[in-house]
Amino acid sequence: MKTFEYDILSFPMTGKTSLSDMKNTLNAQGADGWEVVSIISSEFANVGHTVFLKRETTSNGDTA
After folding, report:
1. Sequence-separated (6 or more) residues with CB below 8 Å from residue 27
2. Rounded to two decimals, what is the model's pTM?
3. Of 34, 64, 33, 32, which is closest to residue 52 (Cα–Cα)?
4. Where are the strands (E) in 1-64, listed by range?
5. What are the angstrom distances between the C-alpha of 3 and each of 46, 54, 63?
6. Alpha-carbon span 27 to 25, nearest angstrom
7. How far apart are CA 29 and CA 23, in angstroms?
8. Is 63:55 a contact under the CB 8 Å cutoff?
9. 3 C-beta neighbours (distance < 10 Å), count
10. For residue 23, which phi and psi values (nearest 5 degrees)?
């Protein structure tokens, strides 16, 4: 059976480079095997975006 681990990132939209920073962070997470599951706009951390990620793990809990 497949197992997964999850992470949640928050990106406040406070500056001109915020979207670029978000893209760079998500690309780095993707390189580590993380996949975006959902993105929502939120007021958490100064109106921005909350991103939910997952990646598959092995049966002993290591990253696949």
Report:
1. none
2. 0.78
3. 34
4. 3-12, 35-42, 48-57
5. 33, 10, 10
6. 5
7. 10
8. yes
9. 11
10. -60, -45
Q: Say if CB 57 and CB 3 are below 8 A apart.
A: yes
| 8 Å CB contact between 32 and 54 | no
Cα dist from 39 to 8, 58, 63, whole Å = 10, 26, 23
Task: Report how far residue 47's alpha carbon sits from residue 41's, in angstroms, rounded to the nearest whole number.
Answer: 7
Smallest CA-to-CA distance from 49 within 21, 20, 15, 9 is with: 9
Give the Cα separation of 59 and 41 in Å (integer).
34
Per-residue pLDDT tens digits for 2-45:
999 999 998 887 776 678 889 999 999 999 999 999 999 876 54
